[in-house]
Design a protein that fits this description.
Oligomer: single chain
Order of helices and strands: EHEHHEEEEEHEHHEHEEEEE
Structural class: alpha+beta
Number of domains: 2
CATH architecture of the largest domain: 4-Layer Sandwich
CATH topology of the largest domain: Deoxyribonuclease I, Chain A
Length: about 400
């Protein structure tokens, strides 16, 4: 049996000092030192075998944070772990205290294809793995073929043009890696979907979009910006779902993690996870029903349910809530709303009810004590720490020894 941990960590704009990422936004050397200090402490506390990072502008800055976490972890080991001469050197509690450095770990960084000049930077994502990678990481952002989403004409308007949405590029890359763990190879996706910030169109020749001029507040234009952002986020979720299905069809165990910018029950999250099967399809009228009693058979019910379950993902957070009777987990706080927008999803290979499971989640933890309501003007940590909680799924693969 192999135990391991997998974590998701939105670091909030990680870049070196004196480098303008968004317009007029930089870290002084002192601010960068403070941020590196805080991030290293979080990495040390998580001590996760696999970590998916979001909002990474530079690989070098991330390596800087990991190196600092290692230095602190090695020092803590020297202070906390007794050597063979000490009476309690075999006690399990001391093994649990030990930190494992990332000195031999593999790091994959996916820069943003839309990254630009100072002030116009765009963040990427990264995955750190103590188990290395089974093959070269893959990045998905610019689509080889645009995603075209046609809309069905409403009844009575069959001859009309209902329009179409076309997506050429994801707002941030999706990073896919295959990681060897405990005799298995797990496909891990790390994503950061489009945020809820409104998407506004700047007219040709203008300095900014009209909706950005808050002194001439345009409620309908702002609402349209939210609609665009939501549609883009759901389209990105569909692209991720397609990649997930490809892995599941190949028989690979799958873990999906990252900043979804939406809760578990949002449409975008449901697209990624897949449908929840209907309780009994034998109750439903067939798609080709000719009368009121023309329903799916019991055999068809079993077959449909299996087809749905085979490609469904499960929220690690909700599996933990079910297991522990805990009733609240949150990774984001803004405007008085505390919610989980950072997720770890697992294929049924890790579901406790699946007879052919290869492992399961034993525990789930969240580091959110640093979170304050980001809409408060004096909220601490808004820039130098992270505005997200970190989540860690404690997993095992294989049977008990």
């Amino acid at each position: 049996m192999t135990r391991f941990t997998i974590a998701s960590f939105n670091v909030k704009n990680l870049i070196g000092p004196d480098k303008e990422y968004y317009e007029f936004q930089t870290y002084t050397p002192e601010e960068y030192a403070w941020k590196k200090d805080w991030l290293a402490d979080q990495v040390l506390t998580m001590d996760a075998d696999i970590v998916g990072f979001q909002e990474i502008f530079e690989e070098e800055a991330l390596r800087d944070v990991v190196a600092e976490a290692d230095a602190r972890g090695i020092a803590a080991n020297s202070a906390n772990i007794p050597d063979a001469s000490k009476r309690y050197h075999r006690k399990a509690i001391f093994r649990k205290l030990a930190y494992t450095p990332y000195s031999g770990a593999a790091l994959a960084f996916a820069p943003n294809a839309a990254d630009g000049e100072p002030g116009q930077r765009r963040p990427g994502v990264a995955i750190l793995s103590r188990f290395g990678f089974a093959e070269a990481p893959q990045i998905l952002q610019d689509l080889p073929d645009p995603l075209e989403i046609p809309f069905q004409p409403l009844r009575g308007l069959e001859d009309g043009d209902s329009g179409m949405f076309r997506l050429h590029r994801l707002s941030r890359p999706i990073l896919k890696v295959r990681i060897p763990v405990g005799g298995e190879v797990i496909t891990v996706f790390n994503c950061h979907l489009k945020s809820k910030l409104g998407e506004y169109i700047k007219p040709k020749g203008a300095e900014f979009a009209p909706e950005e001029v808050l002194t001439r507040y345009d409620p309908m234009g702002r609402a349209m910006g939210s609609l665009r952002a939501g549609l883009r986020r759901m389209a990105e979720a569909w692209v991720l779902r397609e990649a997930i299905i490809e892995e599941l069809d190949a028989g690979h165990p799958v873990v999906v993690m990252g900043d979804f910018n939406d809760g578990e029950h949002a449409v975008s999250s449901e697209i990624i996870a897949g449908e929840v099967p209907f309780k009994n399809y034998s109750w439903m009228l067939r798609h080709d029903a000719k009368d009121y009693s023309d329903r799916y058979t019991k055999e068809e019910n079993a077959r449909i349910t299996e087809m749905v379950e085979r490609v469904r993902l499960h929220s690690a957070e909700k599996l933990f809530v079910r297991k522990s009777l805990r009733d609240m987990v949150f990774t984001s706080a803004f405007g008085g709303i505390y919610e989980s927008i950072d997720q770890i999803y697992l294929s049924r290979h890790f579901h406790p009810d699946y007879k052919k499971r290869i492992g399961e989640m034993e525990y789930f933890s969240v580091l959110n004590d640093h979170l304050t309501d980001g809409s408060h003007p004096e909220a601490p940590y808004n820039k130098l720490a992270s505005d997200h909680g970190q989540i860690v799924a404690h997993m095992r693969i294989g049977e008990d020894d």
